[in-house]
Structure formats: structure tokens, C-alpha cells
Amino acid sequence: MSFIRRPIQAYQSWPKWARLAAPVIAVLIVVAAISTGASESGTQKSNGRVTAASSSTTTPATTAPPAAPSGSGSAMLARLRVAPEGPRTGYNRDLFPLWIDADHNGCDTRHEVLIAESTVPAQVGSGCSVSGEWFSAYDGVTTTNASSFDIDHMVPLAEAWDSGASGWDLNRRRDYANDLGYAGSLIAVSAASNRSKGDNDPAQWEPPRHDDWCQYATDWVSVKVRWDLSADQPEVNALRAALDTCNGTSSTATPPTSTSTTTTTATLPPARSGGSLTISALDCGGERVTVANGGPAPIDLTGWTIHDEGTKHTFSIPAGYALTPGSSVTVKSGGGAGPGELYWTGASVWNNDGDTAYLVNPGKATESTRSC
């Protein structure tokens, strides 16, 4: 037991003041040890700096994104899963969290799209304020005012919900709503064209700028394949018709030199007589042209177009749109369309005295004209 007695004997030989202070010192040593242990379990040292340790309750990581689509629009269409759409029961836009800053660089998804799609080098200021110039492929509008453009989900959130997203978890819906992995998923377009599109699919709405039909259909079907979303048969039919406009050439939409939907000013032939489909009214100040069916049978307007100044401005009536006998439709430009109207472009079209509207059939023959 000498290994015990020696410390005791040594302790008894200490001066009285040391024997009295020893218990206090022992307590302080124990407290310091406990404190040091707690501190080291909550901090880590890195390069000589003390930083907070990783928490065990971090936000779940973004799920692995789907593979980027590859191939032509027609090839994507062949891979599309065709099925009736489900009910929109339970849909709420808030179920798709947006906009997020996935890479934590201070710029959220909206700003990332604006930076990527500026037609001139984008300038990024404090708070990720973005300046640049943007072209809206839907309607040909160009702007330097970023706040006048929306970031459009190529396949709208509600459409995605109807096509399979209703069965996803919140993380996957968040990833879909902020998908920067495929350039066609999110695009910057004029607010007017985005709101005209709404939640509609290609059977219900197509870009008023005909030159974008190929790219629009290619991106739409690619997004659906990328995210394994289904499409109903009318949607597939409209996509196939729009993809037919690609004609084997590049489907990339290139900004024109002006906000007109085309740049040619070729003169159209005079109207034929006796047709049942006519331009029944042209309100240049109100930016409205009305097409009426005066015949005894319904008329499918797929492939029909309306022109101003020859072919300088061109509006393609959406595929599948039909007029019953005695009915009419008004095409609105220069601002948002009202109920029952079709939307052309955010730019004024019928703004000159003497403007003439041409109604042209799918065979490129002029059916009817009317001037301001």
C-alpha cells in the first residue's frame, strides 16, 4: 500500500495554506476539464481558426437531378409517356418551393436565369441585382428592364401536378421548380406572354411568335421526359404538329432584329371571294382583329394565320382552335387579351393609318382582308 501512503505523507508535509487550497484547486481543474471537453465537442479547428462543428440536423440535400434530355424533339416525343391527366385535386403553388439559392452564391433561381439568358453580358450588382438585355422567344419582345420579364416554367407547375408531380415529395417538387440543369426548363419571357400562357399545355396555347414553335415543343417534351411526366393525347397531337415546323433544321430560337414576329415585308395576294371565314372587324386603336365564320359548318383554324403589312407581323392561330357556324374570335395585340380573346404580342401591331389585316389559310392563300 506504499503507493497510497506516499502521496498522503507528501500531502501532510505540505504547508498549511497549501493543504487548505488543494480542494479548491482540484474542483477548478475538474470544472475546466469538463468545459474543455464540451467546447471541443462543439467546435472544430481549421487552419488555426475555431469554427462551429457541423450540426446533425442539416437541411436535406437537393435530390439528384434527372438526366439531361438528349436527342431531337421528335426523338423525345417518341419517349413520352402518354396517359390521361390526373385531377388537379390538392394542387397548391406553394407545394413547389421557389425561388431558392441552391449554390449559396447570393443569387436565387430567378436571377440565375436572368444572368444566363441576357443577350449581352449580364452585370451583377449588390444583392444580386442584374442588368442586361433579354429577348422573349414567345412573342419577340426585347427589354432591358428585368422586372418586366417573368421566369416561365416551360411545363407549368399545375400541368406538372396533373402529369405526375402530385405523387412527388416536397424535395423533388422544389428541384423541379428550380431546375437549372436543362436550359429549356426555365426561360425568361415577357410577363404578358407568360400570363397569356398560364397553365395551358400546347393543345390549348402556343407561342404567338410562330418561329418559336419548334423550340417550344422541343423544350416542352424534353422537360416532360426529363422528369418522367405524362402527356395526354391532345397534347401529343399539338406537340407533333409544332415539331413539324422544325423541318430538320436547328430548333434554337434566334432573336430577330426587331420585335416584329418576322422581318420580311413580302406582299400577300389579294383575297379570294366567297370564303366563309372572314375578317369581320379591325379595331386599330384597340389593337383587335375579329375573325368570323359565316358558313354553315365548323372550321378548324389550325394552320391559319393573320398578317399586318404583308407578312411583317404574323400571328398563327393555335392548333386545334375551331369556330362553329356564326361564331367569331377576336385576336388582341398590344396588351393582355380579355375573356374569349386570343393573344398576339405585347407590342402594338395595328398602330398606323392604312394598316391592312390579311387572313391566310393553311395553303398560303389570302381568304379575307380589312384595313383601318
Question: What topology emerges from the helices and strands here?
Answer:
Layout: H1 2-12, H2 16-42, E1 43-46, E2 49-52, H3 73-79, E3 81-82, H4 109-117, E4 123-124, E5 130-131, E6 134-135, E7 142-143, E8 149-153, H5 157-162, H6 170-177, E9 186-190, H7 191-197, H8 213-226, E10 230-231, H9 233-243, E11 277-283, E12 288-293, E13 299-300, E14 305-308, E15 313-316, E16 322-323, E17 328-332, E18 341-343, E19 356-360, E20 366-371
Parallel strand pairs: 3-10, 17-18
Antiparallel strand pairs: 1-2, 4-5, 6-7, 8-9, 11-12, 12-17, 13-16, 14-15, 14-19, 19-20
Helix pairs in contact: 3-8, 8-9
Summarize the structure.
With 372 residues, this protein is an alpha+beta fold.
Structural description of this entry:
- The chain is of the alpha+beta class and 372 residues long.
- It folds into three domains: 1-33; 92-246, no CATH class; 277-371, Lamin Tail domain (Immunoglobulin-like, Sandwich).
- The protein is built from nine helices and 20 strands.
- The strands form eight sheets. The chain has a four-stranded mixed sheet with strand order 11-12-17-18, with no helix packed on it.
- Helix 3 packs parallel to helix 8 and helix 8 (213-226) packs across helix 9.
- It is globular.
- Residues 1-13, 29-62 and 248-268 have low confidence and may be disordered.
